[in-house]
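Researcher: Checking consistency across runs. Here is Calcium-transporting ATPase again:
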Amino acid sequence: MSGQFSNSPLGEDKDVEAGTSSFTVYEDSPFDITSTKNAPVERLRRWRQAALVLNASRRFRYTLDLKREEDKKRMLRKMRAHAQAIRAAHLFKAAASRVNGITSSPSAPRSGDFGIGQEQIVSISRDQNVGSLQELGGVKGLSDLLKTNLEKGIHGDADDISKRKSAFGSNTYPQKKGRSFWRFVWEASQDLTLIILIVAAAASLALGIKTEGIKKGWYDGISIAFAVLLVIVVTATSDYRQSLQFQNLNEEKRNIHIEVTRGGRRVDISIYDIVVGDVIPLNIGDQVPADGVLVAGHSLAIDESSMTGESKIVQKNTTKNPFLMSGCKVADGQGTMLVTGVGVNTEWGLLMASVSEDNGGETPLQVRLNGVATFIGIVGLTVAGVVLFVLVVRYFTGHTTNADGTPQFVGGKTKFDHVLDDLVKIITVAVTIVVVAVPEGLPLAVTLTLAYSMRKMMADKALVRRLSACETMGSATTICSDKTGTLTLNEMTVVECYAGFLKMDPPDSSSKLPPAFTSILLEGIAHNTTGSVFRSESGEIQVSGSPTERAILNWAIKLGMNFDSLRSASSAVQFVPFNSEQKRGGVAVKSPDSTVHVYWKGAAEIVLGSCTHYMDENESLVDMSGDKMAELKNAINDMAARSLRCVAIAFRSFEAEKIPTDDEQLSRWALPDDDLVLLAIVGIKDPCRPGVKNSVLLCQQAGVKVRMVTGDNIQTAKAIALECGILASDADASEPNLIEGKVFRSYSEEERDRISEDISVMGRSSPNDKLLLVQSLKRRGHVVAVTGDGTNDAPALHEADIGLAMGIQGTEVAKEKSDIIILDDNFESVVKVVRWGRSVYANIQKFIQFQLTVNVAALVINVVAAISSGDVPLTAVQLLWVNLIMDTLGALALATEPPTDHLMDRTPVGRREPLITNIMWRNLFIQAMYQVTVLLILNFRGISILHLKEKQDPERVKNTVIFNAFVICQIFNEFNARKPDEINIFQGVLGNHLFVGIICITIVLQVVIVEFLGTFASTIKLDWEMWLISIGIGSISWPLAVIGKCIPVPETPVSQYFRINRWRRNSSGN
């Protein structure tokens, strides 16, 4: 095994801080889930049942609500069945009417701004009533009623939009209001320990007033109640802020931008701004943004599974099946639709209005932290139980004394009310120890840092769709990146051109081309495109479409193309959109004289392979000789070697009478692709992004291998890879480093697994090749991130550990299957996501180190003091304040540290590596032991060491100093936790305003508690000497941390020793 995977992450050595990766599968632990992406429901339910939870509503707020998910699926099935039943009933009624010779007439059009009313148009769309549509005059008649020009769209001015929204509604649907702040207060108060403390506070208040009178008896009860209330309010405020961040992110995810035709030109608008009457172009991978009817289309196939629940592709045409449902996806072909229904007037809108979006989806780190919290919680409960038992026994045996030295309990003499009051205080201390011991906020710290990171990542052009992806990106060992637009600028220009008979220099010198040749070439370019050319209001020519389409259209314009006149002079009979599997697209065009030309455009060597002729300068067809073919192939290779994308354009004539006339047969007709005549081969320049080489180098230094997977020519891929630094030199440009997709897919699974580790560049790859590569790399133990933009990339994006869809060029299908959307399509943004992913993990580790130090110190101090003296130096109110510092405020301070360059100096974090590394154990042990030692010395010898005998109430002064020093130790240690493995703990501290703010707030509140809230917090005012002593005790933690960081730690994680011992015991038992 080790030999087979010698180059995989399973065999790599990790740095000391990260620990070493483990190849053990811990089937026995419900918290061992390395990936929650597509995890079985039973697996998710199992860890929830195993977790020790004090406040389930808060702990599981941002995990997948399994019950709600089941209810959601059930509701979707009901609504789909309801919609289909209505449609079936209408079809049955229509069929019966035809049999009986009854014809239905459309209801009278509504008077007003439009010739048709909302109810009528919604009814036609919902029932998919072709008969009613034909009675209105078909799509053309409907567009006239809606005052829409099918070519130019609506006017689109503010008045027109307002009238349409008023008449037919807007493309929005009612959404559930976010939880109010008071809902978060209520949920925060559901914590079991806090409820017990409130009950204890009420009992203490009642008993205190009864035994000591109203003037003094209310102190203890009200103090605990106030402290609990403070914890609840601060916790609720933090949770509420997180909720608002998630709401904003959800809004961003839903706000899809699409192209519509308005005023004769294509404009980019939000999906929420679509109105009835809009004309919208549809291409492969698009989401149908509203209900509508098909105006024109070629081979348009729609995936209606989101609405019907059946994964069946439905062919659409303008006569028999023209209706399009909102929320469905374009699986193939292209078309143009007229919007007939928006918002809640569509089935999708009704569906979205009734099904609330769930923020849920736990992350692997969240699950693991629940395991850590459960373990610590069990220890804390045990300790609290021991403390409770010891204090009760000591109380009833007369070993606890009052302030004057008399026993608190004397059998037969102490009043029942006093006994009850004392027992309530003992129980309060024990319960408060549970509050401190059970780190309820530990798993929620993941949500906090993820919410913070996701908001910041938006500024870095990355929109996180799945919470777990953010942290998983920190473990990524390889990134399979597209070339075009990700590694390159996506600013394409035709810089070189070979016509069939000559090399054009410059490429747009139309004077060298014969008229008939130019006419055929430009007709092919005008029709065989998904782009468009239009004039702006200022008269400037503008081009839309993909970067490749725009480059070719701009080149054709320079050759003299009049886009609109060519498109109107002849009509497209059949259209085959560019396909990433076939690497080409085609169109059949019929002229007024019934001449039919079939045009193909695509990857140069593939289109050239189908060519048997070329047109010479005399406009004659010449056989493609072997020499000519070799000459053109050499030209393609030469352009590709200079990192140019090579596209060929070819055509052939076809007999008009052989074209099917029936719509159904026409939709199945395959365009002829043999005996083609080469028209042109163009070389398109797409420069590398300026900073991409540094980004690739940064990834390599961070232990993340960047692989280019592109559909481009292998030579183009090689040239770009050398320019980007993915290939170091020409010497690396050989198999298997550089490989073609067809070669890779021809290997067996074992062979693919063997060579996948070495692949750096894959050229002429299909989406399925990308999927095979991802699967091979995952079998090798890699954590794989994949970029994709096309519909066919969806399987690879889904299969990868992290799917990264492109925000600009990506289709809606690709985005829906992705985990993160890269908004600017830039590889540098992908690298920033890696930094943020590592930052999430590092921040959680910082928080764990800080919180466990407080846990250990507080528990040990109170347990030792309770067992030895029967009293605890830290009271319930003080422990609640400490809990607030380490839980909510500590998480806010440490879980929101911005990423640093140091994070990219490490290798990726293994998915099974211990959360608490040896370095963390070392730091934690040193700080906790220091705090415990010093504070216990103060507890037992503090009065004499601090010379407090002469002071008034020395015991209370001593306990106040212990409490004050303990809190100040945590403030100093918070700085240590920022940099667990670095000497300079202050680097970048002023850049984190939240950290500085929380430290200042903590200091101010501590001063207030000690100096002004003595009655509530059981403290007494300290003089400046005691303050200096407290600060001095806390400040020693800084030099102590520096000394500690000089102590080397073993590479094998501490947890590994326990695992080995357990394995040995199990083995010996067998």
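Researcher: Does this match what you'd expect to see?
Model: One thing to look at in this run: The first helix runs from residue 41 to 50.
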